[in-house]
């Protein structure tokens, strides 16, 4: 049994507010989730699991601190910090991409001068990834601006792409920035990583402070190498127990967001600990931290351990020093903390149009879908595709709706064609996907997750049926109107297991139908 708890309530009454059953608009009557009144969350009071780890030093520590507070203290050269303190933080890595990079560069040149040099050419990582495989002239121009700036500044880590007709002809091109940052060794415990993308919090999986910033802030960091930040209070989520075989980290974070709402962690650090978290591989931890921002979180963070260190072997030669929360650290708010049982009730997807609009897959079994999308920084990693392949392999059936596969990076794309799927007799993901009738894996990028130009692969354009909106089950991270293109599109956020099961039936489907 998995028990998840958070330091979030001063009394024994659960902090989590039950939500009204939210149906879809009357105009989309064919798509409706039915929530049985008998289903409810099993709540109890539980103390958090305290791992016996030695706190990392941050100078002369006067009072206990959380992981995030320690990272802030080290980066600001302070011995002690508490939530609410405003400090100048030295940045270890700044990342930007083709959507926000040109604006950040423009601000840098305006404020520091046309001929100014960046603060450190080896601490800036520039990754084209959003609007890449398109004929849109403005999108192509953005990549050109990045290239010119990187040549001018001699930026060491620029993952360029020139030949849009064949991504494999571009050895430097990587793909989705948040996955590429990890694969290329730019994510390290104890460091500060800022990026011009809200899902920069993904890197918190490595025990570092990582958060998204705007173009103005990024322009300043380009020139100064530091930024004024407020120390966030920390919400601590303790998840203990063995993960059931039909659950993934996506289920855990969707459940958490559904409990606390899209504003429940506003400008707070979301710290994930416990035996369940320790059992997750790095890519699953990345999924967990990736969606912290969907709860309003300033950052998500997981303590570094042997899993982290093993992943980093051979990826970075930069020395790093992990930090861990002190046993007596203060969390927000203090007091007792409720727990919810994930073994009894697991929300396996989110229905339109908000990331906290939870529902059980089985409650939505009558929702007919038009397509399935596997991809993005949240759900386009190697482990995500292996999960999809596992369901297809177990089912031995073909998909009933178009199923689009968009690997996050070149490495992920290569993995699909080279790594044998466990229990398949040596078959790779690509072979299983072909047998299941999926689309051929596309060029690695953010793809349709952010909509993009109209010629973006798998983008939701016009509705698939004249009288209904397009309905997509997706492994991405947001389901606001227009997020994946057409404003009438309906996006059901789900784990790779649930997305794969739904592709096989043409309806929202609980993966346990194929994974039992």
From TrEMBL:
Pfam families: Aconitase. InterPro entries: Acnase/IPM_dHydase_lsu_aba_1/3, Acoase/IPM_deHydtase_lsu_aba, Aconitase_4Fe-4S_dom, IPM_dehydratase_rel_enz, IPMI_cat. The keyword Iron-sulfur applies. Residues 87-319, 362-506 form the Aconitase/3-isopropylmalate dehydratase large subunit alpha/beta/alpha domain. GO terms for molecular function: 3-isopropylmalate dehydratase activity; 4 iron, 4 sulfur cluster binding; metal ion binding. Keywords: 4Fe-4S, Iron, Iron-sulfur, Lyase, Metal-binding. GO terms for biological process: L-leucine biosynthetic process. This is Aconitase/3-isopropylmalate dehydratase large subunit alpha/beta/alpha domain-containing protein.
């Amino acid at each position: 049994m998995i028990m998840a708890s958070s330091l979030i309530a001063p009394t024994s009454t659960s902090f989590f507010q039950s939500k009204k059953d939210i149906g879809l608009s009357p105009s989309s009557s064919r798509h409706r989730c039915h929530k049985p009144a008998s289903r409810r969350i099993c709540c109890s009071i539980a103390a958090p699991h305290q791992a016996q780890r030695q706190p990392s030093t941050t100078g002369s520590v006067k009072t206990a601190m959380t992981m995030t507070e320690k990272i802030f203290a080290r980066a600001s050269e302070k011995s002690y910090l508490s939530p609410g303190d405003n400090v100048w933080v030295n940045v270890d890595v700044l990342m930007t991409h083709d959507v926000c990079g040109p604006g950040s560069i423009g601000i840098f040149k305006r404020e520091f001068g046309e001929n100014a040099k960046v603060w450190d050419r080896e601490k800036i990582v520039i990754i084209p990834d959003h609007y890449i495989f398109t004929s849109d002239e403005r999108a192509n121009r953005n990549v050109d601006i990045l290239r010119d700036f990187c040549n001018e500044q001699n930026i060491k880590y620029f993952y360029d792409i020139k030949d849009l007709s064949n991504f494999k002809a571009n050895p430097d091109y990587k793909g989705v920035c948040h996955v590429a940052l990890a694969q290329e060794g730019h994510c390290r415990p104890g460091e500060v990583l800022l990026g011009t993308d809200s899902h920069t919090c993904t890197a918190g999986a490595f025990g570092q402070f990582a958060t998204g910033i705007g173009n103005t802030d990024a322009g300043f960091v380009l020139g100064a190498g530091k930024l004024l930040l407020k120390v966030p209070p920390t919400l601590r989520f303790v998840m203990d127990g063995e993960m059931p075989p039909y659950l993934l980290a996506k289920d855990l974070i969707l459940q958490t967001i559904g409990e606390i709402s899209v504003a429940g962690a506003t400008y707070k650090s979301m710290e994930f600990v416990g035996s369940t978290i320790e059992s997750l591989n790095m890519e699953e931890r990345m999924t967990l931290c990736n969606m912290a921002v969907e709860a309003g979180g300033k950052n998500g963070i997981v303590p570094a351990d042997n899993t982290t260190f093993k992943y980093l072997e051979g990826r970075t030669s930069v020395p790093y020093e992990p930090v861990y929360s002190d046993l007596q650290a203060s969390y927000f708010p203090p007091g007792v903390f409720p727990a919810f049982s994930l073994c009894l009730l697991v929300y396996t997807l989110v229905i339109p149009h908000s990331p906290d609009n939870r529902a059980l897959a089985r409650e939505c079994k009558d929702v007919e879908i038009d397509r399935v999308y596997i991809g993005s920084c949240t759900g386009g990693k190697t482990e995500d595709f292996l999960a999809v392949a596992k369901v297809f392999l177990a089912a031995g059936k073909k998909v009933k709706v178009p199923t689009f596969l968009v690997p996050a990076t070149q490495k992920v794309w290569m993995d699909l064609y080279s790594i044998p799927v466990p229990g398949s007799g040596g078959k790779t993901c690509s072979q299983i996907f072909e047998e299941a009738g999926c689309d051929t894996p596309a060029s690695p990028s953010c793809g349709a997750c952010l909509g993009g130009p109209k010629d973006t692969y798998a983008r939701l354009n016009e509705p698939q049926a004249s009288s209904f909106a397009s309905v997509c089950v997706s492994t991405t991270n947001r389901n606001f109107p227009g997020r994946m293109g057409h404003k009438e599109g309906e996006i059901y956020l789900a784990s790779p297991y649930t997305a794969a099961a739904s592709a096989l039936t043409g309806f929202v489907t609980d993966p346990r139908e194929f994974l039992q």
